[in-house]
Write a structure and sequence with these properties.
Blueprint: E1 9-12, H1 22-40, H2 44-58, H3 67-74, H4 78-83, H5 95-104, E2 108-113, H6 117-127, E3 135-138, H7 151-159, E4 166-170, H8 173-181, E5 186-190, E6 206-208, H9 212-215
Helix pairs in contact: 1-2
Length: 220
């Protein structure tokens, strides 16, 4: 159960929390490999293997989320290729209702995403997400990913947050673990970030599949 009286600020992840992770999975697993294969004159198998190797080497770092890094590494315009399929960007179920619910509770709502500012701009323009949030923060502003040590202290200092009275909602366990370790008082895991795939396994924190469970004040 979430005790809203103990929370001043709700910190919200974007991809897999507010927006359906199906877009990102489609882009990185299907669309980008296809386009990279075409533009680099490699077979699709070769393109996928190269992308997977690079992804594995970058995982957990800020560069893993950086479209500029990927563009330079692959010698293609990754963000332009992403814009070509922006019509696939969509909300997870009950997202807008939940954001309106938080507004009714008069909670400060801050988007905290690892997405590169260019990707954030694209997704905000496509979804209108900014209309429901008080602030938009990309971890690139701090040169640290959310799962990196020190990120939450830097965010706390800049935004003058009382982390003990913040609720942070995300689908990534490494990110949630780091937020908890650095003092975020209330942690909630999203179990179904990609609605086209099976839900993730429950971790050690409170968890929900969809936001309607929070509005019903029932958190398993």
């Amino acid at each position: 159960m979430i005790n809203w009286d103990q929370i001043d600020t709700v910190l919200l992840d974007m991809d897999g929390t507010l927006l359906d992770l199906s877009f990102d999975n489609f882009f990185w697993r299907e669309h980008l490999p296809t386009e990279y294969s075409r533009l680099s004159n490699k077979t699709l198998v070769q393109a996928k293997e190269e992308l997977e190797q690079l992804s594995d080497s970058l995982y957990g770092s800020l560069d893993w989320y950086c479209v500029d890094y990927w563009s330079e590494a692959l010698n293609i315009d990754v963000e332009s290729i992403k814009r070509d399929v922006k019509q696939h960007i969509r909300y997870r179920p009950h997202t807008l209702s939940f954001l309106q619910f938080l507004r009714g509770l008069e909670k400060q709502c801050i988007l905290v995403t690892n997405a590169h500012p260019k990707t954030l701009e694209l997704k905000v323009a496509s979804s209108g997400l900014h209309e429901y949030l008080d602030k938009l923060v990309s971890s690139h502003e701090f040169s640290l990913a959310k799962e990196n040590a020190g990120f939450w202290h830097k965010l706390q200092e800049r935004e003058e947050l009382n982390l003990s009275r913040c609720l942070f909602i995300d689908d990534s366990m490494p990110v949630l673990i780091n937020a908890h370790r650095e003092g975020v008082g209330h942690i909630l895991q999203i179990l179904h970030p990609d609605t086209t795939q099976a839900p993730n396994l429950k971790g050690d924190y409170l968890s929900i599949h969809d936001f309607d469970e929070l509005m019903n004040k029932s958190v398993p």
